[in-house]
Structures are given as C-alpha cells and as structure tokens.
C-alpha cells in the first residue's frame, strides 16, 4: 500500500476545498493525523481558509506548528471576507505580538477591507514597501469617493517610488475619470497605458467605452 505523504495530503485537502467538498477535506485531515503524518502550517492554512470556524489553535501548539506570515494573512483575509473586522484586527495584532512581521500583502488585505485603517505610517516604520497591488487598492478607494485628483497623485507617487504599474492601476484611473465625467482624461490615461507597452484588458476597454457611450447619451439628451 502506498501511503500519501504530507505534500500529497495537503494537495488533496486543497483540491477538495476548491470543490467545496469540505467534509471530504476534513476527513482527509483526520486520516493523515491517524496515520501519524504531522500537518504543517500550509495544511492548517488551507483548512482554515475554507473552514474558518475550525478551532485548531490548541492543536497547532501541541504539534509545535508555528503560524507564519502567509497563515496570518490568509486568516485575516478570511475574517474580512466574513465581515468580522474585529477578529481580523485581533489576528493582525497577535501576529505582531508573537514577532511575525506583516508583509505588503497583509497590509493590502487590511487596506482593501478596512479603508480607515492607517497602514502607510506603520509600513514605513517596518520598511515594508508598497507594491502595485497596494497602490491599486489606494487608487481604487479614491475613485470610489470620486476624488480623481488624489487618485492621480497616488498614481504619480507609485511611479516616483519605482513601482512599475500594470494594467490594474491604469484601469482604476480610467474608471475614476469615467465616474467623474473627465472622459478626455480617461482617453489620455488609456493612451498612456498603450504607450507604456501594456495591452489594455477587457476591463480597461469597457471602462473607457462605458464613459464614451455615457457621454454620447448625455449629448444626445441635450440636443
């Protein structure tokens, strides 16, 4: 009989979770422990990302499985997804308390779900550099409140800091221009994206076209 190893069990658990077959995933988890195959932090991360109500804290301590930054970040994201911001912030404080340094993904998750949470100052003090995903979330937040000027300032800051934009921040800016009625600016940003060597995706094209049709509709109504 070929007995699966840790990697195989974790892969199979993840596959069942991906198909939302959580009972089968948990049954495999119990089986691996019966066979004295010790789960690692990845196994627990996969399980808790899909079954957040599962209480594994004591078990992880007993098995000397130490949470890492990925574990904490995924758990924070899971609780944010469940709209339990109190628990998400408690986990964030706990990871720092036990000496695990949050990374840019951790801060991006928090920023995306708790906009009022001031991440920038703390990131600077811990020397955590923002990446394109972090900046895109910042830009998108300003777009949601219709502050195109601040969104463009953040985009400029991203460029100055040496972070190379992909299509996502451009698309967020185009959508913001459309939302605030600055369609020429939307076209300028779209052209800038093309000139930088990026291929516009369906979302950025849709954002530009939606604004153009809206503008044409308004002009038609005015005549």
UniProtKB/TrEMBL annotation:
PPR repeats: from-to residues: 5-39, 68-102, 131-165, 166-200
InterPro entries: PPR_rpt, TPR-like_helical_dom_sf
Domain of life: Eukaryota
Pfam families cross-referenced by the UniProt entry: PPR_2
Keywords: Repeat
Signal peptide: none
PANTHER family: PENTATRICOPEPTIDE REPEAT-CONTAINING PROTEIN 3, MITOCHONDRIAL
Family designation: Belongs to the PPR family. P subfamily.
Protein name per the record: Putative pentatricopeptide repeat-containing protein
Annotated organism of origin: Noccaea caerulescens (Alpine penny-cress)
């Amino acid at each position: 009989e070929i007995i699966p190893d840790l990697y195989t069990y974790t892969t199979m658990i993840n596959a069942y979770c991906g198909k939302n077959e959580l009972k089968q995933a948990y049954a495999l988890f119990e089986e691996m422990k019966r066979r004295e195959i010790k789960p690692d932090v990845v196994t627990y991360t996969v399980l808790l990302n899909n079954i957040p109500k599962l209480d594994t804290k004591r078990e992880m301590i007993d098995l000397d499985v130490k949470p890492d930054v990925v574990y904490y970040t995924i758990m924070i994201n899971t609780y944010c997804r469940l709209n339990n911001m109190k628990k998400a912030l408690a986990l964030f404080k706990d990871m720092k308390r036990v000496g695990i340094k949050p990374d840019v993904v951790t801060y991006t998750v928090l920023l995306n779900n708790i906009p009022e949470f001031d991440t920038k100052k703390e990131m600077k003090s811990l020397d955590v550099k923002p990446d394109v995903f972090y900046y895109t979330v910042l830009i998108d937040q300003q777009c949601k409140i219709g502050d195109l000027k601040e969104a463009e300032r953040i985009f400029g800051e991203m460029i100055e800091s040496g972070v190379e934009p992909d299509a996502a921040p451009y698309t967020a800016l185009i959508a913001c221009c459309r939302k605030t009625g600055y369609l020429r600016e939307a076209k300028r940003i779209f052209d800038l994206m093309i000139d930088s060597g990026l291929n516009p995706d369906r979302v950025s094209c849709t954002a530009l076209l939606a604004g153009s049709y809206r503008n044409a509709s308004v002009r038609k109504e005015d005549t």
